[in-house]
Each structure stands twice: as C-alpha cells, then as structure tokens.
Amino acid sequence: MLEEHLKEELILLNLDASNREELFKQVANTYLEKGLVTEGYYECLSQREDNYPTGLQMEDYSVGIPHGEPEHVKESFVSIVTLTEPITIYKMENPEESVPIDVFFFLGLGDGALHLNILRETIGVIQEKTLIKKLKQASSAKDALALVKEVLSLT
Fold first, then answer.
1. How far apart (Å, rounded) are the C-alpha atoms in residues 88 and 150?
2. pTM of this prediction?
3. Does residue 154 lie within any of the structural domains?
4. What's residue 80's pLDDT?
5. What does the pLDDT look like over 69-120, one tens digit per residue?
6. Domain count within the chain
C-alpha cells in the first residue's frame, strides 16, 4: 500500500530549510504544483503539526511524519524529504520536547482507513535504522525509492 503511493518525483533530497515553516512551505508548494493538494494544505499541515507534533525519536536517530487533513488532499501520496541540515520539531510522544530531524515522510492521504494502513507501514519502514541512514546519503530519488522498496519487500 505504501509502495503504490510513493513516487520517485515526490522524493525530495537534500532540501535547504532553516525551520519547519520554510520546509512546510517548500513541500506544500511542490505538492500544489503537482496537483496533489489544495491551496489550504500548507496552513492545515502547519496547524496539525502545532496541535499534534509528528517528530519521532528512535534509537539514535529521529524522523518526522507530518500529515494534513484529507479534505486538502486531491490525490493520495507519500513523500520522502531529506534535509541538508536538521531542523527542530516537537516530539509526537511529548509535545514539550523537541528533536532535530533531517528525514521526513510526508503523508497526504484522502481516506481515513488508508491513512491508518499507510501510517502503520511507514512506522515499520522508519524503524529500519539502516534505511534511514542510507536515505540521508542517497544521491538520487531513484536510489532512495529502490532502498524503500527493498525494505518493503522484506516486510
């Protein structure tokens, strides 16, 4: 399920963003240009992150899983984004604590049941420490997609 919503053109590697707002604007504009989301997606994404942070601290790395609301998604997608330098976002399990993150899985899902299934698969993928490390080093979206597909084929 995750695999069919993850497209090479939505794997954005080594973006420059100094904070969450800058990152969210960049990705929201990309998704809007591709016709995947509505104009209100950026604001929805930001508000949802304010209310329900998505930073996950794993063993010795961290990952973000930002997502908006279904009414702002025209076509369901999963997008992997890596940054040149980590930005700070708040933790999912403790919204008072922040965590530096440079790998994000943005979920744009228009259906509630699909959302839960994709989220479950995404959580499984991000638990693969080696994959996250390799995604940070990936030189192309094609390579990054192949890495994720390899992990998905093992689950």
1. 29
2. 0.94
3. no
4. 97
5. 899 999 999 999 999 999 999 999 999 999 999 999 999 988 767 778 888 8
6. 1
Domain with residue 13: its CATH number is: 3.40.930.10
Question: Alpha carbon of 4 to those of 68, 92, 117: distances in Å?
Answer: 19, 26, 12
Q: Tell me the three-class secondary structure of the chain, residue by residue.
A: CHHHHEEEEEEEEEECCCCHHHHHHHHHHHHHHCCCECCCHHHHHHHHHHHCCCEEECCCCEEECCECCHHHECCCEEEEEEEEEEEEEEECCCCCCEEEEEEEEEEECCCHHHHHHHHHHHHHHHCCHHHHHHHHHCCCHHHHHHHHHHHHHHC
- Judge whether 153 lies within some domain: no
Tell me whether residue 132 is in a domain: yes
Shortest CA distance to 72 belongs to which of 42, 102, 33? 42
Q: How far apart are CA 105 and CA 3, in angstroms?
A: 13
Q: Looking at the predicted structure, is the pLDDT value of residue 67 above 70?
A: yes
Cβ contact 37:46 at 8 Å: no
Which tokens hold the place of 89?
Answer: 């976002």
* Contact indicator for 29, 22 with CB cutoff of 8 Å: no
